[in-house]
Design goal:
binds zinc ion; 23 strands; eight-stranded antiparallel sheet; Immunoglobulin-like; globular; Glucose Permease (Domain IIA); alpha+beta
């Protein structure tokens, strides 16, 4: 090969993007949403069919995102659920997707918006919020136990169909409402409240394994279901629990009855969802996962 030609190639090389090597030009990876609020999820999908032997690694901040076969195209695509913590400040962020064989990394940008969540100011005298030390101890112990459950990781996904509401009802208090007691931000609503009279059947939002079925100081009779891959849903204030710990449940199975147990003012279902211990809005999660499932024709739906 003439020397001049080699020199010319050498000069060109640094200018060539990775696509020049062919394979990566067609690497399809996308976020289903480019703009979210804190406490919501983003679904990512990436094409594995072109690189069947490759390992993919998806990260957001210091979080490793678990990938699973997309229910709509299990042979072609991988999907992942990225939870955006409630504390995330508004701004621009990136999710990184990397092919371990080639080292090629794609950065996918998205933005976090602010201003979705209302603040509720509550003025109370100290007597009303006072919890005796015994109950405080109990609540602390239960909080620790719950935290440990929600940070567990079961390496299998128990579902491949859409999530359903645990009770066909209306939202009475959405996720994320900030509660300010006597001008001090006390907490934010880490679940969504659904209207449900005492005795209404509460159903598993999807299949999984029961990890908690017991009475708690704040949440009353509670059930936590492990859906696999660090993904959990929880159900609180039940009047009756119909499942036991370590039991498998199917989507739609009755797990208990709605009630007003724990520290609540009236009967309702408090429904929560967490991924890797991060609380997310179960309603937004349910809706955002919809596109990863095969489309059901109107005909099939009617059956
Ligand atoms: Zn609630």
């Amino acid at each position: 090969m003439p020397r001049l030609f080699l020199v010319a190639i050498g000069m060109l090389l640094p200018l060539l993007p990775s696509v020049a090597f062919g394979v990566d030009a067609s690497w399809d990876v996308k976020l289903f949403s480019k703009s979210v609020y804190p406490g919501q999820i983003i679904v990512i999908s990436l094409e594995k069919a072109s690189f069947p032997s490759s390992n993919f690694k998806v990260t957001f901040s210091d979080l490793d995102i678990q990938l699973f076969n997309c229910p709509s195209k299990p042979d072609q695509n991988l999907c992942g659920i990225v939870p955006i913590p409630f504390e995330t400040k508004a701004g621009s962020y990136e999710i990184s997707a990397r092919r371990e064989d080639s080292g090629v990394t794609r950065a996918l940008s998205f933005s976090v918006q602010s201003g979705l969540y209302k603040t509720v100011k509550i003025q109370v005298n100290d007597e009303t919020v006072h919890v005796n030390s015994e109950d405080q101890e109990r609540a602390k112990r239960e909080w620790q136990e719950t935290k440990e459950i929600l940070h567990k990781y079961y390496p299998k996904l128990f579902w491949n169909t859409p999530f359903q509401l645990p009770v066909a009802s209306k939202v009475t208090s959405p996720f994320g409402v900030k509660r300010v007691f006597n001008d001090v931000l006390q907490s934010y609503h880490q679940g969504v409240d659904l209207r449900a009279w005492t005795g209404t059947s509460i159903r598993a939002a999807n299949s999984g394994i029961v990890r908690l079925a017991s009475n708690r100081f704040y949440a009353g009779n509670s059930v936590i279901i492990d859906h696999g891959f660090g993904f959990f849903t929880s159900y609180a204030h039940l009047s009756r629990i119909d499942v036991k710990r370590d039991q498998s449940v199917e989507k739609g199975q009755v797990i208990g009855l709605a009630g007003a147990t724990g520290r609540v003012s009236g009967p309702h279902l408090h429904w929560g969802a967490t991924i890797n211990g991060i609380s997310v809005d179960a309603m937004q999660l349910k809706k955002s996962l919809q596109p990863i499932f095969p489309k059901i024709s109107a005909k099939a739906k009617a059956r």
